[in-house]
Amino acid sequence: MKNRLKVLRAERDWSQAELAGHLDVSRQAVNAIETGKHDPSLPLAFKIARLFSMNIEDIFDDQA
Q1: pLDDT digits over 8-57, tens only?
Q2: Domain boundaries, position 6
Q3: Other CB atoms within 10 Å distance of the CB of residue 46
Q4: Structurally, how many domains does the chain consist of?
Q5: Which residues belong to any copy of the HTH cro/C1-type domain (predicted)?
């Protein structure tokens, strides 16, 4: 699944580790989601959307 997570993280000048801390996941989990190797669980997707004050659909694209 394509996503804008890396771009959103960069806009805030956060490292993967910093984003992971905000989400209570590992840095490796953030990397796997950013690179499309892993799709986030629904609860994690909601948490990401809330963190960035966006809709899930604005971050994740399931058409890819």
Answers
A1: 999 999 999 999 999 999 999 999 999 999 999 999 999 999 999 999 99
A2: 2-59
A3: 12
A4: 1
A5: 5-59
Residue 21: how many CA atoms within 13 Å on its side-chain side?
5
Answer whether 61's CB lies under 8 Å from 1's CB. yes
Can you give the pTM of this predicted structure?
A: 0.92
* Position 64 in a domain: no
Other CB atoms within 10 A of residue 17 CB: 11
